[in-house]
Amino acid sequence: MSTGHITIDLDAIIANWRALDKMSKSETAAVVKADGYGLGAGRVAKALAKAGARKFFVAVAEEGAILRQALGEGPQINILSGHMSGDTDMIGDLDLTPMLNSIDQISRHFEALPGHAFGIQLDTGMNRLGMEWDEWGAIAEIALAQHPTLVMSHLACADEPDHPMNAFQLDVFHQMTDGISVPRSLAATGGILLGKDYHFDMTRPGIGLFGGLPFENARHVVQMDLPVIQIRNLNAGEVVGYGNAWQAERPSRIATISAGYADGLLRSMSDKATLYYGDEPCPLVGRVSMDLLTVDVTDLSEDPHALTILGTQQTVDQLARVAGTIGYEILTSLGNRYTRRSKGG
Length: 345
Ligand SMILES: *Cc1c(COP(=O)(O)O)cnc(C)c1O
What we know:
Strand order of the largest sheet: 3-4-5-6-7-8-9
Low-confidence stretches: none
Bound molecules: pyridoxal-5'-phosphate
Oligomer: single chain
Number of helices: 11
Order of helices and strands: EHEEHHEHEHEHEHEHEHEEEEEEEEEHHE
Structural class: alpha/beta
Number of strands: 19
Helix content: 25-40%
CATH superfamily of the largest domain: Alanine racemase
CATH class of the largest domain: Alpha Beta
Number of domains: 2
CATH topology of the largest domain: TIM Barrel
CATH architecture of the largest domain: Alpha-Beta Barrel
Distance between the termini: 26 Å
């Protein structure tokens, strides 16, 4: 067995969901797109459903179909990309709720599945998904007459509380939706932390459930341990890995670890990241290969069987910073060679 192990603390995910839920008076949904931010949408959603979550969001209908299988009938599964051509059977048969993003999608949905649940996504300035001011003006009355489950929009800069875009989008959202009698939603994790003006009727946290910023007080969710394949002694002056990118300055012990950039441990971590043996830091040396890492374990008092790259010693966001990216990208890049195990839930 030489693949890495990811241990997912479902109790921590539930605690994070409850903590985010407590921050608003609104209903709290759960966003589990991209296979639950790489941790397993089915297991995460089942644990959250048991804890009381009733509404879930995924990016595309195919993810919704997988989630429906895991959750069974009952929980509402919302599709952020809306109703694409080819989605009709999945949406209809599996009772998925598309967030319709354009007049085209509204027409498609009303024609293909009359009477079937839907929500509306509005663009309030991010220019990514949703109907813009003019489009919404043209269709709002017709769409609202069919009783959407939700009218939602998404904030572009919610992880920067002082960014003027937040208040701007809040104002646009009010202008586009005040006076309608449909539940509204604007906030993801960052929006929840912006305070009650942003909460409306439903919040949609994703990353905060999984212990990531901007939810600073999140409980730690992911532990990732990587097996050592072999350990060798180097003389001072010997080199390690592709491009001879690292050279030993002293007699060194180098552990070769089973995981690489194909497992989401990005090449930009080369010569920069730190792994841990218990609390003892061990620097990654040389380049990250596709399937392997090389780590300096010279200072350890014993030979490790495995090293930890994500855990209480190093959070997803700390590792992300080393790699020049964000926690979201680290989690969703992890790939499928790991053994994923969950505890609690
Ligand atoms: C991804 C996403 C969310 C969840 O965002 P987090 O920052 O992970 O909490 C909510 N709403 C929409 C539209 C999204 O795309």
